[in-house]
Amino acid sequence: DAGVTQSPTHLIKTRGQQVTLRCSPKSGHDTVSWYQQALGQGPQFIFQYYEEEERQRGNFPDRFSGHQFPNYSSELNVNALLLGDSALYLCASSFDFRVSTDTQYFGPGTRLTVL
Amino acid sequence: KQEVTQIPAALSVPEGENLVLNCSFTDSAIYNLQWFRQDPGKGLTSLLLIQSSQREQTSGRLNASLDKSSGRSTLYIAASQPGDSATYLCAVCRGNAGGTSYGKLTFGQGTILTVHP
């Protein structure tokens, strides 16, 4: 059973460019959340997708947007990249976030470097 | 706004020692609390999940406790091994008025653990 997968593994972009990151959730999971982890910091919640809609959003600007497809996979898009967007972007999936025993499973992450 | 703090920021111990990692949170209205492990440059692996109604959870050499009233959790690692070296992250999931959760995790900054042979 494949876990959460993310692509690409690494990405280098320049300021002002746009980037798309992809995530496939663990089999049987329908909820996908995205987190940004700067070096030496804990992950910060970006947003969550469930039933193809953005359900919750953290304190991130509108430059960060996303999408969830009918097969539950998800994309994270970042426009007008800034140097401060350099980070490890983590995708997490879960079976039912409304259940107290629900565990979030994380992918290996995409390392984005903005030059 | 929920804030999660982990102490110490880094810990270096010889192999075989028992150790305790600490996590504190400011809002006691939590749904559950999870401890994760992260190896350098990698994703997160869930170690233990404690529901808000529970006091502790155990898995092998790991034991996590939760005290909602004081806003604290501890992760106890028994008989540490070099393979335990990693960053340990505490994450809190907030409850909502409906008695469930939205599934959003708020993380601490982590404790970097090094276990020397």
**What is the chains' assembly state?**
heterodimer
Tally of strands of chain A: 11
* CA(first)-CA(last) distance of chain B: 41 Å
Q: Main sheet of chain A, how many strands, which sense, barrel?
A: 7 strands, mixed
Task: Note poorly predicted spans of chain A.
Answer: none
H/E element sequence of chain A: EEEEEEEEEEE
Shape of chain B: elongated
Integer average pLDDT of chain B: 93
In whole angstroms, the N-to-C terminal distance of chain A is 37 Å
User: β content of chain B, as a range?
Assistant: over 45%
- Rounded to an integer in angstroms, the radius of gyration calculated over CA atoms of chain B is 14 Å
Question: What characteristic shape of chain A results from the CA principal axes?
Answer: globular
Structural overview:
Helices cover 0% and strands 50% of the residues of chain A. By secondary structure, chain A is mainly beta. In chain A, the strands form 2 sheets. In chain A, strands 2, 4, 5, 6, 9, 10 and 11 form a 7-stranded mixed beta sheet that branches. Chain A has a 4-stranded antiparallel beta sheet with strand order 1-3-8-7, with no helix packed on it. Chain A is globular, with a radius of gyration of 13 Å. The N and C termini of chain A lie far apart (37 Å). Chain B is mostly beta strands and 117 residues long. Chain B contains no helices and 11 strands. Chain B has strands at residues 4-7, 10-14, 19-25, 30-38, 44-51, 56-59, 62-67, 72-77, 86-95, 101-107, 111-116. In chain B, the strands form 2 sheets. In chain B, strands 2, 4, 5, 9, 10 and 11 form a 6-stranded mixed beta sheet that branches. Chain B has a 5-stranded antiparallel beta sheet with strand order 1-3-8-7-6, with no helix packed on it. In chain B, strand 7 and strand 8 (72-77) form a beta hairpin. Chains A and B meet through strand 4, strand 5, strand 9 and strand 10 of A and strand 4, strand 5 and strand 10 of B.
